[in-house]
Write a structure and sequence with these properties.
mainly beta, globular, OB fold (Dihydrolipoamide Acetyltransferase, E2P), 2 helices, seven-stranded antiparallel sheet, 24% strand
Amino acid sequence: MALKTFRPLTPASRFKALPDFAEITKDKPEKALLETLKKSGGRNNNGRMTMRHRGGGHKRKYRIIDFKRSKRDIVAEVIAIEYDPNRSARIALLQYTDGEKAYIIAPIGLSVGAKVSAGVSAEPAVGNALPLKSIPLGTTIHNVELISGRGAQIVRSAGGAAVLANREAGFALVKLPSGEIRKINAECYATIGQVGNSDHMNVSSGKAGRTRWLGRRPHVRGMVMNPVDHPMGGGQGKSKGGGGRHHPMSPWGQLAKGFKTRRKHKPSDRFIVQRRKGKVKN
C-alpha cells in the first residue's frame, strides 16, 4: 500500500495523506457476509453517555470475518481484496472448493489467485492458519488466539505482527507488537504473515470534516474549560488548572499519567513473561 499526497491548493490538502487503495480489487462487498451495524453515539442501554466524542459518521455495514478459520484442511482461493470501513486492515474474500465464501484479514503478500488453508497439516505460508505448536520458531504471525477455539483476538490491526519466540511445557512464547512476551497455549491458532496496510499509521485526514465522517466528534481540552466543568479548568491565561501546577486528570478527577489502573492480581498475569516496557516478571 502507498499513500497519496496532494498539491497544497487548499488548507485541507496541504498536509493530507490518504491511502491510494491500489490493492483493492473489488468495490462492492459480498452481501451474504454483511450484517447491520447499529450506532450508539457513545450511549449505553439507558441512553447515558459513557464514551465521549462519538457520534455521526457515515453509515456502515459490518463484514463478518472468519477469525476462527473454521473450515480446516480445505483449500480456499483468494478471489478479492476489499476495503473494510470497520477496521484499519484490508480484508480478503476466500472461496473454498465447496463454494462457500468467507472473509479473513489480508496479510502482506496475499494476492488474488493465492491458495490458503487452515489446519495442523497446513504449510507455514502467508495466509495459512496453524496451531502454534506446528509453526516454526521465529515465524512472523498475526490473528492470534488467546483461548483455543475462541477465534483470533490479538494482532489484528494494520501492520501488526507478532513473533513466535519459543515453546515450553505446552505453551508458546509470543512476542507481541507492544514488546510484551506472553505465554499462549500451543493449541491456539495463528495466521502466518504480517497484517497488511502497514502505511495506515501515516494517514493524515487533512481536515476536521473527514474525522467527522469516521464518527469522531470534537475533543475539547480540560485546560480550556471552566473550573466547574473540569479539575484542570480555570485560571488566568494559559495555566495548568486554576492558576497553579495541576497534574493531568480526567473530568472526574482520576490521574491521567503514571496512575496504574490495572488490577494488582489479575489472573492473566501468570501468562505474561515480560512486560511491554521491558520489565521481566518475577
